[in-house]
Amino acid sequence: MKPTGPIPPEFAGEGPLLIGGETAEALAARAGDTPLFVYDLGVVRARVARLRAALPAGVGVHYAVKANPFAPLVAALAGLTDGLDVASEGEMRLALAAGGAAGGTAVSFAGPGKRDREIAAAIDAGVTINLESEGEAERTLAIAGRAGRTPKLAVRVNPDFDLRGSGMRMGGGAKPFGVDAARVPALVRRLIAAGAEWRGFHVFAGSQALDAGAIAEAQAATVALAGELAEAAGAPPPLVNLGGGFGVPYFAGDVALDVEAVGGALAQTLAARPAVLADSAFAVELGRWLVAEAGVYLTRIVDRKTSHGETFLVTDGGLHHQLAASGNFGTVVRRNYPIALASGAGGPVETVSVVGCLCTPLDRLGDAVALPRAAVGDLIAVFLAGAYGASASPAAFLGHPAAAEMLVG
Ligand SMILES: Cc1ncc(COP(=O)(O)O)c(C=O)c1O
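A: This is the predicted complex of the input protein with pyridoxal-5'-phosphate.
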Protein backbone atom coordinates (compact mmCIF):
# COMPACT_ATOMS: atom_id res chain seq x y z
CA MET A 1 0.00 0.00 0.00
CA LYS A 2 1.25 3.49 -0.89
CA PRO A 3 0.18 6.66 0.90
CA THR A 4 -2.17 9.26 -0.54
CA GLY A 5 -2.29 13.01 -0.01
CA PRO A 6 -4.60 14.61 2.56
CA ILE A 7 -8.26 14.97 1.59
CA PRO A 8 -9.25 18.66 1.95
CA PRO A 9 -11.02 19.09 5.31
CA GLU A 10 -14.31 20.13 3.64
CA PHE A 11 -14.60 16.69 2.01
CA ALA A 12 -13.02 14.49 4.66
CA GLY A 13 -16.09 13.02 6.37
CA GLU A 14 -17.53 9.54 6.76
CA GLY A 15 -20.28 8.32 4.43
CA PRO A 16 -21.09 9.28 0.84
CA LEU A 17 -19.10 12.26 -0.43
CA LEU A 18 -20.99 15.55 -0.38
CA ILE A 19 -19.87 18.46 -2.57
CA GLY A 20 -21.72 21.72 -2.04
CA GLY A 21 -24.30 19.75 -0.03
CA GLU A 22 -25.08 17.27 -2.85
CA THR A 23 -23.98 13.66 -3.09
CA ALA A 24 -21.49 12.72 -5.78
CA GLU A 25 -24.14 10.43 -7.31
CA ALA A 26 -26.68 13.28 -7.50
CA LEU A 27 -24.10 15.52 -9.15
CA ALA A 28 -23.22 12.83 -11.69
CA ALA A 29 -26.92 12.40 -12.44
CA ARG A 30 -27.28 16.15 -12.88
CA ALA A 31 -24.28 16.21 -15.27
CA GLY A 32 -25.88 13.35 -17.22
CA ASP A 33 -22.63 11.37 -17.46
CA THR A 34 -19.27 10.72 -15.89
CA PRO A 35 -16.48 11.73 -15.55
CA LEU A 36 -16.99 15.25 -14.25
CA PHE A 37 -15.20 18.00 -12.39
CA VAL A 38 -17.17 19.62 -9.58
CA TYR A 39 -15.96 22.92 -8.11
CA ASP A 40 -17.37 23.95 -4.74
CA LEU A 41 -17.65 27.74 -4.63
CA GLY A 42 -18.18 27.61 -0.87
CA VAL A 43 -14.62 26.29 -0.50
CA VAL A 44 -13.27 29.07 -2.75
CA ARG A 45 -15.16 31.72 -0.77
CA ALA A 46 -13.71 30.36 2.46
CA ARG A 47 -10.17 30.48 1.03
CA VAL A 48 -10.61 34.10 -0.12
CA ALA A 49 -12.03 35.12 3.26
CA ARG A 50 -9.17 33.43 5.14
CA LEU A 51 -6.61 35.07 2.86
CA ARG A 52 -8.13 38.53 3.24
CA ALA A 53 -8.12 38.15 7.02
CA ALA A 54 -4.47 37.05 6.94
CA LEU A 55 -3.09 39.70 4.58
CA PRO A 56 -2.39 43.26 5.69
CA ALA A 57 -5.29 45.61 4.94
CA GLY A 58 -5.17 47.01 1.43
CA VAL A 59 -3.10 44.22 -0.14
CA GLY A 60 -5.05 43.15 -3.22
CA VAL A 61 -5.85 39.56 -4.12
CA HIS A 62 -5.58 38.68 -7.81
CA TYR A 63 -6.70 35.40 -9.35
CA ALA A 64 -4.43 33.78 -11.96
CA VAL A 65 -6.98 32.49 -14.47
CA LYS A 66 -4.58 29.84 -15.80
CA ALA A 67 -5.21 27.75 -12.68
CA ASN A 68 -8.81 27.16 -13.70
CA PRO A 69 -10.46 29.00 -16.60
CA PHE A 70 -13.95 27.46 -16.17
CA ALA A 71 -16.08 30.49 -17.07
CA PRO A 72 -18.60 30.36 -14.17
CA LEU A 73 -15.71 30.04 -11.71
CA VAL A 74 -13.82 32.96 -13.29
CA ALA A 75 -17.01 35.04 -13.12
CA ALA A 76 -17.40 34.21 -9.42
CA LEU A 77 -13.75 35.02 -8.72
CA ALA A 78 -14.04 38.35 -10.54
CA GLY A 79 -16.52 39.32 -7.83
CA LEU A 80 -14.48 37.91 -4.95
CA THR A 81 -11.03 39.25 -5.87
CA ASP A 82 -9.48 42.58 -6.88
CA GLY A 83 -8.00 41.51 -10.18
CA LEU A 84 -7.71 38.78 -12.78
CA ASP A 85 -4.31 37.90 -14.22
CA VAL A 86 -4.41 36.35 -17.66
CA ALA A 87 -1.84 34.72 -19.89
CA SER A 88 -3.47 34.73 -23.35
CA GLU A 89 -6.09 36.54 -25.37
CA GLY A 90 -8.46 33.63 -24.68
CA GLU A 91 -8.08 34.07 -20.92
CA MET A 92 -8.40 37.83 -21.37
CA ARG A 93 -11.74 37.42 -23.14
CA LEU A 94 -12.95 35.26 -20.25
CA ALA A 95 -11.83 37.87 -17.73
CA LEU A 96 -13.51 40.67 -19.67
CA ALA A 97 -16.73 38.67 -19.97
CA ALA A 98 -16.55 38.18 -16.20
CA GLY A 99 -16.62 41.95 -15.70
CA GLY A 100 -12.94 42.77 -15.88
CA ALA A 101 -11.12 45.95 -17.05
CA ALA A 102 -13.68 48.54 -18.18
CA GLY A 103 -16.27 46.44 -16.29
CA GLY A 104 -14.50 47.21 -13.01
CA THR A 105 -12.11 44.40 -12.07
CA ALA A 106 -8.45 45.02 -12.88
CA VAL A 107 -7.13 42.72 -15.58
CA SER A 108 -3.43 42.25 -16.26
CA PHE A 109 -1.88 40.24 -19.05
CA ALA A 110 1.49 38.53 -18.49
CA GLY A 111 3.23 35.83 -20.44
CA PRO A 112 5.95 35.49 -23.05
CA GLY A 113 5.20 35.49 -26.78
CA LYS A 114 2.26 37.87 -26.88
CA ARG A 115 1.26 38.32 -30.51
CA ASP A 116 0.53 41.72 -32.02
CA ARG A 117 -3.19 41.07 -32.18
CA GLU A 118 -3.23 40.05 -28.50
CA ILE A 119 -1.40 43.24 -27.57
CA ALA A 120 -3.80 45.31 -29.68
CA ALA A 121 -6.80 43.64 -28.04
CA ALA A 122 -5.38 44.25 -24.56
CA ILE A 123 -4.74 47.93 -25.28
CA ASP A 124 -8.23 48.26 -26.72
CA ALA A 125 -9.80 46.69 -23.61
CA GLY A 126 -7.82 48.83 -21.16
CA VAL A 127 -5.99 45.79 -19.80
CA THR A 128 -2.59 46.28 -18.12
CA ILE A 129 0.14 44.56 -20.10
CA ASN A 130 2.96 43.08 -18.03
CA LEU A 131 5.84 43.45 -20.47
CA GLU A 132 8.14 40.46 -20.75
CA SER A 133 10.97 42.02 -22.81
CA GLU A 134 12.26 45.22 -24.37
CA GLY A 135 11.21 43.90 -27.78
CA GLU A 136 7.65 43.36 -26.57
CA ALA A 137 7.71 46.88 -25.09
CA GLU A 138 8.68 48.43 -28.43
CA ARG A 139 6.02 46.44 -30.31
CA THR A 140 3.43 47.49 -27.74
CA LEU A 141 4.35 51.17 -27.95
CA ALA A 142 4.18 51.00 -31.75
CA ILE A 143 0.78 49.25 -31.75
CA ALA A 144 -0.60 51.76 -29.24
CA GLY A 145 0.80 54.65 -31.30
CA ARG A 146 -0.89 53.40 -34.47
CA ALA A 147 -4.17 53.00 -32.58
CA GLY A 148 -3.84 56.44 -30.98
CA ARG A 149 -4.19 54.88 -27.52
CA THR A 150 -2.28 55.26 -24.25
CA PRO A 151 -1.31 51.73 -23.17
CA LYS A 152 -1.30 50.68 -19.51
CA LEU A 153 2.10 49.10 -19.01
CA ALA A 154 3.84 47.29 -16.18
CA VAL A 155 7.20 45.54 -16.36
CA ARG A 156 7.59 41.96 -15.35
CA VAL A 157 10.92 41.69 -13.60
CA ASN A 158 13.10 38.61 -13.73
CA PRO A 159 14.52 38.83 -10.22
CA ASP A 160 17.96 37.57 -9.24
CA PHE A 161 16.33 35.29 -6.65
CA ASP A 162 13.75 32.53 -6.80
CA LEU A 163 11.15 31.21 -4.41
CA ARG A 164 12.97 28.73 -2.14
CA GLY A 165 11.36 25.27 -2.10
CA SER A 166 8.96 26.09 -4.90
CA GLY A 167 7.70 23.34 -7.19
CA MET A 168 8.28 25.53 -10.24
CA ARG A 169 11.00 28.16 -10.31
CA MET A 170 10.14 31.26 -12.26
CA GLY A 171 13.02 33.58 -11.35
CA GLY A 172 16.74 33.56 -10.67
CA GLY A 173 19.11 33.27 -13.62
CA ALA A 174 18.31 32.97 -17.32
CA LYS A 175 14.54 32.80 -17.83
CA PRO A 176 12.13 33.41 -20.71
CA PHE A 177 9.96 35.40 -18.28
CA GLY A 178 10.36 39.08 -17.52
CA VAL A 179 13.21 41.53 -18.00
CA ASP A 180 16.45 41.01 -16.08
CA ALA A 181 16.32 43.33 -13.07
CA ALA A 182 19.44 45.29 -14.05
CA ARG A 183 17.81 46.45 -17.30
CA VAL A 184 14.43 47.37 -15.83
CA PRO A 185 15.08 51.01 -14.81
CA ALA A 186 16.07 51.98 -18.36
CA LEU A 187 12.96 50.29 -19.74
CA VAL A 188 10.69 52.07 -17.24
CA ARG A 189 12.19 55.44 -18.22
CA ARG A 190 11.64 54.59 -21.88
CA LEU A 191 7.95 53.69 -21.31
CA ILE A 192 7.26 56.86 -19.37
CA ALA A 193 9.08 59.01 -21.92
CA ALA A 194 6.98 57.42 -24.67
CA GLY A 195 3.80 58.55 -22.90
CA ALA A 196 2.55 55.18 -21.65
CA GLU A 197 0.49 54.94 -18.45
CA TRP A 198 3.05 53.46 -16.07
CA ARG A 199 1.42 50.76 -13.92
CA GLY A 200 4.34 49.29 -11.96
CA PHE A 201 6.18 46.01 -11.40
CA HIS A 202 5.23 42.36 -11.61
CA VAL A 203 7.54 39.83 -9.96
CA PHE A 204 6.66 36.14 -10.01
CA ALA A 205 9.40 34.11 -8.37
CA GLY A 206 7.89 30.61 -8.19
CA SER A 207 4.95 28.34 -7.57
CA GLN A 208 3.69 25.62 -5.19
CA ALA A 209 5.65 26.51 -2.05
CA LEU A 210 4.35 25.24 1.29
CA ASP A 211 6.93 26.99 3.47
CA ALA A 212 5.61 30.30 4.82
CA GLY A 213 9.16 31.41 5.61
CA ALA A 214 10.24 30.95 2.00
CA ILE A 215 7.29 32.95 0.70
CA ALA A 216 7.86 35.70 3.27
CA GLU A 217 11.53 35.83 2.23
CA ALA A 218 10.62 36.14 -1.47
CA GLN A 219 8.06 38.85 -0.71
CA ALA A 220 10.59 40.82 1.33
CA ALA A 221 13.15 40.48 -1.47
CA THR A 222 10.51 41.60 -3.99
CA VAL A 223 9.64 44.72 -2.00
CA ALA A 224 13.32 45.59 -1.63
CA LEU A 225 13.89 45.02 -5.35
CA ALA A 226 10.86 47.13 -6.31
CA GLY A 227 12.25 49.92 -4.13
CA GLU A 228 15.69 49.77 -5.78
CA LEU A 229 14.24 49.68 -9.29
CA ALA A 230 11.88 52.56 -8.57
CA GLU A 231 14.74 54.66 -7.19
CA ALA A 232 16.90 53.88 -10.19
CA ALA A 233 14.09 54.62 -12.65
CA GLY A 234 13.03 57.74 -10.77
CA ALA A 235 9.43 56.56 -10.90
CA PRO A 236 7.41 55.13 -7.99
CA PRO A 237 5.29 52.16 -9.15
CA PRO A 238 1.51 52.58 -8.75
CA LEU A 239 1.28 48.81 -8.14
CA VAL A 240 3.76 46.17 -7.04
CA ASN A 241 2.43 42.73 -7.92
CA LEU A 242 4.29 40.51 -5.45
CA GLY A 243 3.48 37.27 -7.29
CA GLY A 244 2.31 34.31 -5.29
CA GLY A 245 3.61 30.80 -5.12
CA PHE A 246 1.20 29.76 -2.33
CA GLY A 247 1.13 25.97 -2.48
CA VAL A 248 -1.47 23.36 -1.54
CA PRO A 249 -0.90 19.92 0.05
CA TYR A 250 -1.15 17.34 -2.74
CA PHE A 251 0.82 14.46 -1.26
CA ALA A 252 1.32 12.45 1.92
CA GLY A 253 3.50 14.45 4.30
CA ASP A 254 2.64 17.82 2.76
CA VAL A 255 1.66 20.33 5.42
CA ALA A 256 -0.76 23.11 4.45
CA LEU A 257 0.72 26.57 4.05
CA ASP A 258 0.45 28.86 7.07
CA VAL A 259 -1.05 31.89 5.29
CA GLU A 260 -1.45 33.73 8.57
CA ALA A 261 2.33 33.57 9.01
CA VAL A 262 2.80 34.84 5.44
CA GLY A 263 0.40 37.72 6.10
CA GLY A 264 2.08 38.64 9.40
CA ALA A 265 5.51 38.76 7.78
CA LEU A 266 4.19 40.80 4.86
CA ALA A 267 2.73 43.35 7.27
CA GLN A 268 6.21 43.82 8.78
CA THR A 269 7.82 44.03 5.35
CA LEU A 270 5.36 46.66 4.16
CA ALA A 271 5.60 48.67 7.36
CA ALA A 272 9.35 48.99 6.76
CA ARG A 273 9.18 49.46 2.99
CA PRO A 274 11.43 51.91 1.14
CA ALA A 275 10.11 55.49 1.07
CA VAL A 276 9.80 55.43 -2.73
CA LEU A 277 7.03 52.81 -2.32
CA ALA A 278 5.09 54.82 0.27
CA ASP A 279 2.13 55.40 -2.05
CA SER A 280 2.33 52.14 -4.01
CA ALA A 281 -0.43 49.55 -3.89
CA PHE A 282 0.48 45.88 -3.43
CA ALA A 283 -1.17 42.67 -4.59
CA VAL A 284 -0.60 38.94 -4.54
CA GLU A 285 -1.37 36.78 -7.56
CA LEU A 286 -2.68 33.33 -6.69
CA GLY A 287 -3.99 30.47 -8.74
CA ARG A 288 -4.01 27.06 -7.12
CA TRP A 289 -4.27 28.19 -3.50
CA LEU A 290 -7.68 29.72 -4.23
CA VAL A 291 -9.19 26.89 -6.27
CA ALA A 292 -7.26 23.59 -6.17
CA GLU A 293 -8.88 22.19 -3.03
CA ALA A 294 -12.37 23.22 -4.18
CA GLY A 295 -12.32 20.78 -7.10
CA VAL A 296 -13.18 17.08 -7.15
CA TYR A 297 -12.84 14.82 -10.19
CA LEU A 298 -15.50 12.09 -10.20
CA THR A 299 -15.05 9.00 -12.33
CA ARG A 300 -17.02 5.75 -12.46
CA ILE A 301 -15.62 2.24 -12.17
CA VAL A 302 -16.16 0.39 -15.46
CA ASP A 303 -14.24 -2.79 -14.68
CA ARG A 304 -12.67 -4.56 -11.77
CA LYS A 305 -9.91 -7.01 -12.59
CA THR A 306 -6.88 -8.71 -11.16
CA SER A 307 -3.48 -9.28 -12.73
CA HIS A 308 -0.64 -11.14 -11.04
CA GLY A 309 -2.30 -10.61 -7.68
CA GLU A 310 -2.89 -6.84 -8.14
CA THR A 311 -6.47 -5.51 -8.19
CA PHE A 312 -7.26 -2.83 -10.73
CA LEU A 313 -10.30 -0.57 -10.69
CA VAL A 314 -10.62 0.60 -14.28
CA THR A 315 -12.51 3.88 -14.55
CA ASP A 316 -14.12 5.91 -17.32
CA GLY A 317 -11.71 8.80 -16.59
CA GLY A 318 -7.98 9.23 -16.66
CA LEU A 319 -5.02 11.40 -17.48
CA HIS A 320 -6.75 12.94 -20.50
CA HIS A 321 -8.84 14.87 -17.93
CA GLN A 322 -6.66 14.95 -14.85
CA LEU A 323 -3.07 14.67 -16.01
CA ALA A 324 -1.63 16.02 -12.78
CA ALA A 325 -3.11 13.22 -10.66
CA SER A 326 -1.43 10.66 -12.93
CA GLY A 327 1.93 12.21 -12.02
CA ASN A 328 2.75 13.43 -15.50
CA PHE A 329 2.41 17.19 -15.04
CA GLY A 330 5.69 18.54 -13.75
CA THR A 331 6.48 15.93 -11.11
CA VAL A 332 9.64 13.83 -11.10
CA VAL A 333 8.42 10.99 -8.89
CA ARG A 334 4.82 9.81 -9.16
CA ARG A 335 2.91 10.11 -5.87
CA ASN A 336 -0.76 9.65 -5.08
CA TYR A 337 -3.20 12.52 -4.95
CA PRO A 338 -5.91 12.14 -2.29
CA ILE A 339 -8.51 9.67 -3.55
CA ALA A 340 -11.67 8.11 -2.08
CA LEU A 341 -14.64 5.93 -2.85
CA ALA A 342 -17.33 8.57 -3.33
CA SER A 343 -20.34 6.29 -3.42
CA GLY A 344 -20.54 5.38 0.23
CA ALA A 345 -19.37 2.76 2.64
CA GLY A 346 -18.04 -0.01 0.36
CA GLY A 347 -16.60 -3.22 1.74
CA PRO A 348 -13.51 -3.92 3.85
CA VAL A 349 -10.48 -1.83 2.98
CA GLU A 350 -8.24 -3.36 0.31
CA THR A 351 -5.22 -2.24 -1.71
CA VAL A 352 -6.07 -1.42 -5.34
CA SER A 353 -4.74 0.55 -8.25
CA VAL A 354 -7.19 2.97 -9.82
CA VAL A 355 -6.47 3.37 -13.51
CA GLY A 356 -8.04 5.30 -16.36
CA CYS A 357 -9.40 4.07 -19.65
CA LEU A 358 -6.39 5.07 -21.76
CA CYS A 359 -4.20 2.34 -23.17
CA THR A 360 -0.98 3.56 -21.57
CA PRO A 361 0.71 2.55 -18.30
CA LEU A 362 0.96 6.27 -17.47
CA ASP A 363 -2.79 6.40 -16.90
CA ARG A 364 -2.89 5.72 -13.16
CA LEU A 365 -5.02 7.85 -10.83
CA GLY A 366 -4.17 5.89 -7.69
CA ASP A 367 -1.21 3.53 -7.29
CA ALA A 368 -1.67 0.77 -4.68
CA VAL A 369 -4.05 2.87 -2.61
CA ALA A 370 -6.17 1.69 0.33
CA LEU A 371 -9.89 1.98 -0.48
CA PRO A 372 -13.02 0.29 0.84
CA ARG A 373 -13.89 -2.56 -1.52
CA ALA A 374 -15.62 -0.99 -4.54
CA ALA A 375 -17.72 -2.48 -7.33
CA VAL A 376 -18.32 -1.74 -10.98
CA GLY A 377 -20.63 1.30 -11.14
CA ASP A 378 -19.25 2.97 -8.00
CA LEU A 379 -17.83 6.48 -8.15
CA ILE A 380 -14.23 7.33 -7.33
CA ALA A 381 -13.30 10.87 -6.24
CA VAL A 382 -9.86 12.31 -6.93
CA PHE A 383 -9.33 15.49 -4.91
CA LEU A 384 -7.24 18.62 -5.54
CA ALA A 385 -8.79 18.80 -8.99
CA GLY A 386 -9.71 22.48 -8.95
CA ALA A 387 -6.45 23.76 -10.46
CA TYR A 388 -4.50 22.61 -13.51
CA GLY A 389 -7.05 19.84 -14.13
CA ALA A 390 -9.40 19.94 -17.10
CA SER A 391 -7.59 22.77 -18.89
CA ALA A 392 -4.10 21.36 -18.28
CA SER A 393 -4.76 17.84 -19.55
CA PRO A 394 -4.46 16.35 -23.06
CA ALA A 395 -8.24 16.09 -23.62
CA ALA A 396 -7.97 14.97 -27.24
CA PHE A 397 -5.61 12.08 -26.50
CA LEU A 398 -7.33 8.82 -27.56
CA GLY A 399 -10.59 10.50 -28.51
CA HIS A 400 -12.65 10.04 -25.37
CA PRO A 401 -15.28 12.70 -24.54
CA ALA A 402 -14.31 15.72 -22.46
CA ALA A 403 -15.30 15.68 -18.77
CA ALA A 404 -18.21 17.83 -17.71
CA GLU A 405 -17.52 20.73 -15.34
CA MET A 406 -19.91 22.09 -12.71
CA LEU A 407 -19.83 24.88 -10.18
CA VAL A 408 -21.82 24.23 -7.01
CA GLY A 409 -22.23 25.79 -3.59
C1 LIG B 1 2.87 34.64 -13.82
C2 LIG B 1 2.14 33.60 -13.08
N1 LIG B 1 1.14 33.96 -12.28
C3 LIG B 1 0.43 33.06 -11.57
C4 LIG B 1 0.72 31.71 -11.63
C5 LIG B 1 -0.12 30.78 -10.83
O1 LIG B 1 0.58 29.99 -9.96
P1 LIG B 1 -0.18 29.13 -8.85
O2 LIG B 1 -1.35 28.48 -9.51
O3 LIG B 1 0.84 28.15 -8.40
O4 LIG B 1 -0.62 30.07 -7.78
C6 LIG B 1 1.77 31.28 -12.44
C7 LIG B 1 2.11 29.87 -12.51
O5 LIG B 1 2.96 29.40 -13.20
C8 LIG B 1 2.50 32.25 -13.18
O6 LIG B 1 3.49 31.90 -13.99
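Residues 64, 67, 85, 110, 168, 170, 204, 207-208, 244, 285-289, 387 surround pyridoxal-5'-phosphate (CB under 6 Å). The longest helix spans residues 212-233.
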